[in-house]
Design a protein that fits this description.
Elements lengths: L31 H4 L10 H36 L4 H8 L6 E3 L5 E3 L2 E3 L6 H11 L8 H9 L2 E2 L3 H11 L1 H6 L22 E7 L10 E7 L5 E6 L5 H16 L4 E4 L3 E2 L9 E2 L3
Parallel strand pairs: 3-4, 5-8
Antiparallel strand pairs: 1-2, 2-3, 5-6, 6-7, 9-10
Helix pairs in contact: 5-6
Length: 279
């Protein structure tokens, strides 16, 4: 490649280079090459051009070789791990579900995607290959998930990709969080005496026992003493207050602090069903 300077009369607008007297002769003559031969120099040597040509010729076979090598080893490990996975054994022995098929290379496929058993580091290697590989580029959660789902599948894939993406240190440095910094953890104060601070929670949707389907759990934060009070799923605020008076107030008085975990709060009345909320 050779750079040639155009005389001023051939340019649309003279600039600093075309106005130099030591580069061009007067009147814009075309004899500048013979007058200033030092201004005509090749940009690349023959050795540089030859090495560049070899690199451009060999990059595609080298790229394909690296991809095929990783994929073949990974798929061989997947095939060898299918016999130890219960989900894979169930669908290998039964052809009831047409979505599950076995390819000629002995891979188990779900909707034409390779099923990856939960064995060793197979799933982790796929995430490393689809996210950390130089050809992947550390995509975000959505693009990484789409990249994996294009070929592979397993139960809980979305959550697996989500946690792996959050644990990537390179992404954490290059893509900082936009939310406010998290505050310091604050430990709850130690109660002054027993039954001065309690917590209340419900255990619901239990099998009926003597007509009860829920348990109200009251725990003293200082002594960790617990009360398990049988109740119903349809308990109202007035019923809860009655249980509190019978089992807590009548024995220990009014506590100074009550922490409601998974508690219920009514609307403005005390007789209707109660809505769930977390405090």
């Amino acid at each position: 490649m050779v750079i040639r300077f155009r005389p001023g009369k051939l340019g649309t607008k003279p600039d600093a280079l075309t106005c130099r007297w030591d580069v061009y002769p007067k009147e814009g003559s075309g004899d500048y090459a013979s007058i200033n031969p030092q201004n005509l120099r090749p940009m690349f040597t023959n050795e540089q051009l030859a090495s560049s040509l070899r690199a451009s010729t060999l990059w595609l076979p080298a790229l394909r070789g690296s991809l095929i090598m990783d994929t073949e080893r990974l798929q061989a490990d997947i095939v060898s791990s299918l016999q130890s996975d219960p989900i894979a054994l169930e669908h290998l022995s039964s052809n009831a579900d047409p979505r599950w098929t076995t390819s000629p290379d002995r891979l188990l496929r779900l909707d034409d995607c390779i099923y990856v058993p939960d064995s060793g580091d197979l799933r982790l290697r796929i995430l490393q290959y689809s996210h950390d590989h130089p050809l992947a580029g550390h995509f975000g959660q959505t693009k990484t998930l789409h990249q994996v789902q294009h070929q592979y599948t397993w139960p809980g894939l979305t959550e697996f990709v989500k946690h792996y993406r959050k644990s990537c240190t390179i992404c954490a440095r290059a893509k900082p969080q936009r939310h406010k910094p998290y505050g310091l953890l604050k430990q709850l104060p130690v109660p002054e005496k027993p039954c001065n601070s309690i917590s209340m929670d419900f255990i619901e949707k239990l099998p009926p026992s003597s007509g009860y389907t829920s348990i109200l759990v009251i725990v003293d934060r200082l002594s960790t003493q617990s009360l398990f009070i049988p109740t119903h799923d349809t308990i109202t605020s007035s019923d809860l207050a009655q249980l509190f008076v019978i089992h807590v107030f009548s024995k220990h008085g009014v506590p100074s602090h009550v922490r409601l975990i998974g508690a219920r709060s009514s609307s403005h009345t005390s007789s209707g069903p109660l809505a769930r909320h977390w405090i």
